[in-house]
Design a protein that fits this description.
Helices cover 53% and strands 9% of the residues. With 627 residues, the protein is of the alpha+beta class. The chain folds into five domains: 5-94, Phosphorylase Kinase, domain 1, CATH 3.30.200.20; 98-273, Transferase(Phosphotransferase), domain 1 (Orthogonal Bundle), CATH 1.10.510.10; 280-305 and 438-558, Alpha Horseshoe (Serine Threonine Protein Phosphatase 5, Tetratricopeptide repeat); 308-404, Serine Threonine Protein Phosphatase 5, Tetratricopeptide repeat (Alpha Horseshoe), CATH 1.25.40.10; 575-627, no CATH class. The longest helix has 21 residues, at 50-70. The chain is elongated and about 115 Å long. It starts with a strand and ends with a helix. The relative contact order is 0.05. Mean pLDDT is 83; it is low at 161-175 and 275-332.
Length: 627
Amino acid sequence: MIGKLLDRRYRIVKFLGSGSFGHTYLAIDTRRPGNPQCVIKHILPKQKEPKAIIAARRRFLREAQILEKLGKHDQIPMLLAYFESKQEFCLVEEFIPGHSLDSELVPGQPLSEDEVICLLQEVLEILVFVHGQQVIHRDVTPKNLIRRASDAKLVLIDFGAVKEITGEWSEGQSTRTIATGTPAYMPLEQFRGHPQFNSDIYALGAIAIQALTGVTAKELPKLKKSGGTPWRARAQVSQQLADIIDKMVHDDYTQRYQSAKEVLEDLRKIIATSEESQPPPTILYFPQTPPQLPGLGLQYWWYSELADSLLRRLAWIGVATVVSGGLFLAFQNQTYIKARELAERGARRALAGDHLGAIDDYTQALILSPNNAELYNNRGKARYALNDADGAVEDYSRAIQINPNNADAYENRCIAKQLLQRFEEALSDCTRTIQLQPERFTAYKNRCSVYFQLGAMERALADCSRAIELNPNDAGAYANRGMVLNTLKREREALADLTRALELMPKNAEFYKQRGTVYFRLGDYQNAIADFSQALQLNPNDAGAWSNRGSARYNLGQFQEAIADFTRALALVPDSEATYYNRGKALAHLGDKSRAKTDFQKAAQLCLDKGLTVCYNNSQFEIQKLQ
């Protein structure tokens, strides 16, 4: 067959496989520009008698009509053509570039629960559409799920064994059929020739067990024994998901889920619970008016940082609320499909750092789904990442208006309002988050930040301590409490907390910088320099770390090295009055009065521009000393 031209148009280029009804080939369409690839399913009637051929032709035309309807779905190959030649039948289908799910299920390497939930949800949504067309696939297997290269979506292929349930079918009874499929994924009723709609659900449940346990297809039957669930012992899985899967693969189809829609509804409950417990974006460092370090008046900063834990969950989980009545209506609603695609792309762009692109996608999705709180929440996070705190607050407020119990939106708004220095309002939002979810450790950590900025150090300390009680392995909570303790002049305790933070997160430049400031206050300049140097190895563009190390070197009398560090800091932040002041002090110690005077003058001007009277007077005093 290789090289043969079918229907004077389709040239066979590769044999792909064979099934119970014939062979499958890769072909090129010689009549279309660029000769695009397609898949040819060559159906060979087993009998050549006239009556058998007539029956085969009737079945072929019926299956072609079914495939034509199914191909309207974005995640099912499109039927391009069908024809008969010499009493043999051919289906021409869209070729899907990509790889099979089978290649992702590596023996001994189980997938995570979140990955399996996403897999189940995506395939179930396809099955809702398929079953809605009164079609049973009968061979849902990893090899028949293709991860499309263009967008990484799963595509369900190989409907060669489909059987349309006609008027001959009645409730609880289907016409006996040939037992086709892949044994490891087939339920008993399918072996007996009586496939049900939920036979496909059984197959998908078996795939989920394979994915969670990391076993091979041959090992699957051993893990599915009547009266027991031995597969659970080999999987890291919650009881909720395990219960769903066990119901999917129940031997008795009457005790199994009766529709893909029912499975989706139970999955949505797990997703909703996961969203409530997922740590929201947090502030690891307190944005504040920089304090003065002893000795030189050196400034240091505590930065705010938005974690991306929520962005890593694909936004379409939230977009599911677009369709009233549940996900099972999704593929009858093109608006929902488009909104979901936009939300997914927005999430991917945000993770890649393309926050402007993410905002554009979320905005378009909101046009299609204007009452979706999660879309507003995600767009707010993208705006915050671009330092558009006002825009972020606007989006979080809209999310709260839609869902007044949205703890994520309250906490995110608390974070954004801190950036706007609206601390009393931020305090209210963080407190509301805690009221909604009293065990949410990130809310205590963020309220600790607000109290710090309001000067309520003991309350800040209490909240950071509560965050650590709720999650003793959160590095950010230890770092925050360390800086509160440092402000309270409890430096030794602060060192212990910051050291613990570094044990939990050893590659965090900010933690090294903060511990360096504590050593500085203790007069341990060598250790301070070591920590600032480590911070700079991890982040050489941190102006605060350059300036801080310069200050420590100044206090050790290393004036040339201090000047070099201050100069690097000014190259990164050229309007820092404190760094000009500090470099001026070092230059003055070396007797370079001219350059020292220039730096003090620059510092004085910056202080004046910023309304910093004490800073201006100190700079003027140093200038007078040089006269």
